[in-house]
Amino acid sequence: AQLCFDNRVAQCPGFDLELFGRLVDSDSGCPATNDALRQGLAALQVAGDVSQERADLVVSLFEALDVDSDGLLSMQELRPFATLTGFQGSDEEWERECALLCQHASRPRLGLDIGSFGELLADRSEAGFFCTEDQIQEIGR
Fold first, then answer.
1. Is 40:24 a contact under the CB 8 Å cutoff?
2. Which of 26, 91, 114, 127 has its CA 20 to 30 Å from the CA of residue 7?
3. Residue 28 burial by CB count (10 A; 0-12/13-18/19+): exposed, middle or buried?
4. Which residues of the chain have pLDDT under 70?
5. For residue 127, which of 110, 107, 102 has the smallest C-alpha distance?
6. What local confidence, expressed as pLDDT, does residue 92 receive?
7. Which helix (H) or strand (E) holds 122?
8. Predicted model pTM
C-alpha cells in the first residue's frame, strides 16, 4: 500500500509493467532481488495475459542468460539464446539483428529488460522470437 501511495498509484489495479520497471530501476524504489523480481513479474504476467507457468519460465530463462545479473540482457548475453533458437549468422549479422530486437526496449543500447524479453518470446511476428513453454524450458537447461 505504501509503494502505491508513494508513487501515486491506485492499489487496484496497481502497478503496470512500465511503472514496475521504473520502480525496480530506481535507487529510491524497492530492492530488486531476483526473488522479488520473480514474484512481481509473475504477478504482472510477462507480456500480457499469459499463464503463471509461462511467466515463471521466462523469468528463469532471463536469470540464466543474465550472466552479470544487471537486469538487462546484453548483445553478448542474448547470443547463446539466439543461436539455440536458430540464428546462424556472423557476429556482424548478430550485431545488426540484436539492434533490431532491442530497438523497442526501454534501454535499447544496454539490452533487453525482463519485460522486453518476455514480449520478444511472445511475439509471433518476424520481429520476435516466439517460443512455446516447452521450448523456453528446453533452452533454459
1. yes
2. 114
3. exposed
4. 1-50, 104-108
5. 102
6. 93
7. helix 114-122
8. 0.66
